[in-house]
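DM from R.C. (forwarded with permission)

"hey, sorry to bug you on a friday — could you get me a structure for this? deadline for the figure draft is monday and I only need the backbone to look sensible"
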Amino acid sequence: MPIKLPENLPAYDVLSKEGVMVMSDDRAARQDIRPLRIGLLNLMPKKIQTENQFARLIGATPLQVELSLIRMTEHQTKNTAAAHMEEFYRPFADVAASGEKFDGLVITGAPIEHLPFEEVTYWDELKDVMNWTQSHVQSTFGVCWGGMAMIYHFHGVQKHILDHKAFGCIRHSNCAPASPYLRGFSDDMVIPVSRWTEMRRDEIESAGGLNILIDSGETGPCLVEDPAHRAIYIFNHFEYDSGTLKEEYDRDVEAGTPINVPVNYYPDDDPSRPPQNRWRSHAHLLYGNWINEIYQSTPYDMSEIGR
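My reply, with the result:
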């Protein structure tokens, strides 16, 4: 089944050309199906790139999914055209005021990890979003900084600044093979990592009520389940395109910013050679399993979500 997107959203053409099943609003209206409503709270500067990445993964399941794009109410992006934001995004204040509910919500990362959470300009509103999920969203997926923000808000687990950037394709271990989120996963896997902060295993374990599902001896916990808040948190980037780490590396090199070559990404760690994607299949598995868990648990009557 396809993902429902506006026909003039850039992701519609991008995913269509890749063979992802997409559906316009008109076509979806003719089907007698309740689609899963998934919100994307997009905190990344490059909105369109991020839309493509998450729509690609969410749209690869056998279920019809309706993707809704959400932004922080007062925060203005400088990297995406105002016309795009006006046409495709709704401010959270409008979403909250409407009373509508969602089967799932993705809260993306944001390039502000050097700031204490309380110093982020939209932190108070983001706290409202996270509290709102408990009554209006069946399952929430916090990604990178978004996941760190959620685990801090709900459990007080702090992020810690690293003395060098964790950057590259890092091998991780499957700590919970029986978890429905890891159905079909290998015992170990490679996951793109790009961050200046970390979450520490002992602090997550001591918080109580959290389950570490994927871990790395090199870069620490990656995927954490929070059953009490119907949420999962991932601190790394399964959603990345093949060239995303290259774009980040090239950007920093061009700007003269000190940066190490992303490890285990280019063949022989040689940036002159095309990078290899070795995480795509696990990325689709994880997001497909998340969508399936939502489908198995969400009420057909959306008014019952959060009760």
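R.C.: lifesaver. The mean pLDDT is 92.
me: no worries. The two ends are 29 Å apart (CA to CA).
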